[in-house]
Amino acid sequence: MTLLSDQQKTTLAAIVSAFVAPLSEEDATGVVAEHLKDVQDNSVARTKALEAFAQMPPPDLGVVDTIASKLAFFPADKRNEFLQVLDLLATGWGTYLLTGSTRFVPFHDLSLADREHALLNLSQSRFALLRSLFRALKALCRHVTTLWFVLAAELAQAGHRVLVLEQGKFHHPADSTFGEMEEYEKQYADSVFLVSEDGSMQMLAGKTWGGGTAVNWYHSVPNQVLLDGCAKLNFPVHAIPQNTNGHTHSCGFCSLGCPYGEKQGSHVTWLQDAAAAGAKFIAGCKVDKVTYTANVATGVKGTVLDGKVSIVVRAKTVVSACGGVYSPALLLRSGLQNPNIGRNMRLHPVTTIYGFLPTKVVKSWEGSIMTSVTDVVSNVHGNGYNVHNNQVMTWHLLRRQFSWFFAIGRPRVHFELGPKDAKSMVEGMIASAKILLSQGAIEVNTSHLSVPALRLDTPEDRANPVECETSQAWFRQLRATGIPVNSLGIFSAHQMSSCRMAATPAKGAVNSDGETWDVQGLYVADSSVFPTASGVK
């Protein structure tokens, strides 16, 4: 855990309390009463306990210590920058410099209202660096697509000796607590998110037995809102095939795994096939580098038991299947020189939009995983590239100048959202807002820091929610504002093309068989070999 000084903890606690303030007694009573309407156990003791919890300041819940533990996953320079920010906010002049607060007192001495105002100033700064600081603070206060499973099964069934080295540890579903913090730490790289250098993009990458397929994203009751809204607006809408072996799968927490074994992730399909065919496995193994002699692969070196024991594996064929971020990092750590390694990364960017529907009860934690999709904005640019499919953003891994960083196994990523992709995302948000409005939403919001919530306060607006001038003005504002750097929450669960396949080493990192141009017998078998972005999964 990163050690914070008492002063840094005080400042951090003040920040957390501004983002997630405890409820007043009146608000807590109302929220708990609403929650218990559909709960059988609504005893007085339970009610009082929930009301007390709702009024508890976040620092009393151990949030500060949790955040401190997350700082361990930051690069050293970024961690130091964050601690320097805490030190600045502990002074009056530093608080003024960063947030514009004219109280000229340390951040923790500001009233709750003044702290909230100071953070809002930070979020709307004209400087992208300060907006990124706000997003970093906010993120602290609140999958990798691989093909190795298939490859392991196919090779084992063909009679080859197969040893699978998996960084993730095996956790039996029945042993999972499904507590968010604990499961995220166990099952996701960097304990939930990998973050780009400027903080503008957050990536989800599975780090568990079965990889990203074990923690695949879910959706639930809001699917019906999507279906009904599309029908009312005459938007095209399609059913999504379900990867649940014919089961409804209404667990509601697929992002934390599946306690029932219904979701057909690789851990219950291909890996079982590989085991049945004689493949062997080492879980909790971190591969440090691929070994080779005269540009011919000879095996790998790595560690097990949380780095306590080093291992060497001798093999004529080595397959890297670490995903779009970590496969190029492994190749670079191993000394491969092809200039395309770590470049050309493509993503499926995702953002969120949400609405308040006073006439409907929507429990987002219940129901089956994603069941529907609309492609109403499927041709924004007239070339077939669309919002729900093939949205790409260019990344490059910091390579030679940061080779020292790859030596400890953590790639650093730079990201830039292109203007075409930004336009597509804006049109997607507007279409989503229309769907929510058509289903009775009287308030619609995004994670955009520069665009306020859309609120329909008059009977006239609510009678014509999509076409009323209030909504139309909001759509125009969203289009005019666009997506400046660090103004919108964006994440991606699909990272592709960072070791792309090509006909020549000048154009890609691997050949048409997935073999690296640099080392014979070293292959890549994950989404990083895609020549360009795939369609949505």
Automatic annotation (TrEMBL):
Residues 219-350 form the Glucose-methanol-choline oxidoreductase N-terminal domain. The keyword Secreted does not apply. Pfam families: GMC_oxred_C, GMC_oxred_N. Keywords: FAD, Flavoprotein, Oxidoreductase. InterPro entries: FAD/NAD-bd_sf, GMC_OxRdtase_N, GMC_OxRtase_C. GO terms for molecular function: flavin adenine dinucleotide binding; oxidoreductase activity, acting on CH-OH group of donors. Residues 411-536 form the Glucose-methanol-choline oxidoreductase C-terminal domain. The keyword Repeat does not apply. Belongs to the GMC oxidoreductase family. This is Long-chain-alcohol oxidase. It comes from Aphanomyces astaci. The lineage of its organism: Eukaryota, Sar, Stramenopiles, Oomycota, Saprolegniomycetes.
